[in-house]
């Protein structure tokens, strides 16, 4: 009552709105059966405790921000109809919704696969293995031998694959967590070990070496800098590769070995770094252009 500024409301403390913490942080939505219930409860709470009509009225009177000049997209729509699979299950589920929206805006059909239960890959043109907690389902991942072999075959047959963090772990030879050790896909010549403390956490700055398979952005520097982030309690051991097998040199952060990130094998690119399709880092457009180019080459054979 000491100012003339009207108070539109306040969200009161409510234990029902709490999102519990567990292994490495928050419980991800793909593991929590309560996610939708919490969202509905949040909506009801805001409606009851905030003057929504007044909030909308104030927002309607606000001046519009200056329009941003974004320029034209450096990539056109794919020449071929594309189907790109993403792993969406208990082990994998870290995807930025707006990145997936960009895939769709480019005309890509996103196909969800379950690495724990599906026995084979569907008919696809590319594969995106996002982040997650594969260590929480390592026995089930190992048990699904058919899918592990299907993904390995896809990589060996030059299928375009992008893997981030959890996806990177899944593609190594094995995953060890404490006394447990399980076989993984095996196309990356390394073994993964979980640790008690973070091995890489925070913002990263990577310099593209130019060795990657994805087409470059027009009118960009020959070695553009990539700003992204990493968060992993795992590390790769006994990695059998040379400097030429990496796409990124780490300028800030940890990456795969403290010096490099982005392991390259055939048309597979796998890294600990989580990319976001913002700030000039048009990784979705580049990956789609790569997939489109490979499909076009196959159609011409």
Descriptive account of the structure:
The protein has seven helices and 17 strands. It is globular. It folds into two domains: 15-60, no CATH class; 83-300, Class I glutamine amidotransferase (GATase) domain (Rossmann fold, 3-Layer(aba) Sandwich), CATH 3.40.50. It has helices at residues 35-49, 52-61, 97-105, 138-143, 145-156, 166-171, 283-300, and strands spanning 21-22, 25-26, 83-87, 92-94, 109-113, 126-129, 131-132, 161-164, 172-177, 180-183, 188-194, 200-208, 225-232, 234-237, 246-252, 260-265, 268-271. 25% of the residues lie in helices and 27% in strands. The strands form four sheets. A nine-stranded mixed sheet has the order 5-3-6-8-17-16-15-12-13. A four-stranded mixed sheet has the order 10-9-11-14. β16 (260-265) and β17 (268-271) form a beta hairpin. The mean pLDDT is 90. With 301 residues, the chain is of the alpha/beta class.
SSE layout and pairing:
Elements: E1 21-22, E2 25-26, H1 35-49, H2 52-61, E3 83-87, E4 92-94, H3 97-105, E5 109-113, E6 126-129, E7 131-132, H4 138-143, H5 145-156, E8 161-164, H6 166-171, E9 172-177, E10 180-183, E11 188-194, E12 200-208, E13 225-232, E14 234-237, E15 246-252, E16 260-265, E17 268-271, H7 283-300
Parallel strand pairs: 3-5, 3-6, 6-8, 8-17, 9-11
Antiparallel strand pairs: 1-2, 4-7, 9-10, 11-14, 12-13, 12-15, 15-16, 16-17
What's this model, at a glance?
This protein is an alpha/beta fold and 301 residues long. It has helices at 35-49, 52-61, 97-105, 138-143, 145-156, 166-171, 283-300; strands spanning 21-22, 25-26, 83-87, 92-94, 109-113, 126-129, 131-132, 161-164, 172-177, 180-183, 188-194, 200-208, 225-232, 234-237, 246-252, 260-265, 268-271. The protein has two domains: 15-60, no CATH class; 83-300, Class I glutamine amidotransferase (GATase) domain (Rossmann fold, 3-Layer(aba) Sandwich), CATH 3.40.50.
């Amino acid at each position: 009552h000491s100012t003339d500024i009207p108070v539109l409301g306040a969200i009161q403390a409510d234990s029902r709105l709490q999102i519990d913490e567990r292994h490495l942080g928050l419980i991800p939505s793909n593991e929590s059966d309560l996610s939708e219930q919490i969202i509905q409860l949040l909506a009801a709470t805001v409606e009851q405790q905030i003057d929504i009509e007044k909030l909308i009225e104030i927002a309607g009177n606000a001046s519009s921000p200056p329009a941003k000049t974004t320029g034209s997209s450096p990539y056109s729509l794919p020449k071929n109809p594309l189907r790109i699979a993403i792993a969406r299950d208990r082990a994998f589920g870290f995807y930025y919704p707006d990145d997936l929206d960009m895939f769709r805006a480019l005309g890509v059909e996103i196909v969800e696969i379950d690495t724990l239960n599906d026995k084979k890959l569907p008919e696809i043109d590319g594969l995106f293995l996002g982040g997650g907690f594969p260590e929480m389902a390592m026995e089930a991942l190992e048990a699904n031998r058919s899918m592990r072999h299907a993904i390995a075959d896809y990589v060996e047959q030059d299928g375009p694959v992008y893997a981030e963090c959890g996806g990177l772990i899944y593609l190594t030879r094995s995953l060890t967590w404490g006394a447990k050790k399980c076989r993984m896909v095996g196309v990356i010549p390394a073994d993964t070990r979980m640790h008690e403390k973070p091995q890489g956490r925070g913002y990263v700055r990577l310099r593209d070496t130019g060795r990657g398979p994805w087409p470059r952005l027009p009118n960009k520097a020959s070695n553009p800098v990539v700003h992204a982030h990493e968060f992993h309690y795992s590390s790769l051991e006994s990695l059998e590769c040379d400097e030429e097998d990496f796409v990124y040199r780490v300028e800030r952060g940890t990456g795969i070995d403290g010096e490099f990130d982005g392991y390259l094998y055939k048309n597979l690119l796998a890294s600990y770094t989580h990319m976001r399709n913002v700030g000039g880092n048009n990784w979705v457009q580049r990956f789609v252009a790569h997939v489109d180019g490979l499909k076009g080459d196959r159609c011409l054979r």
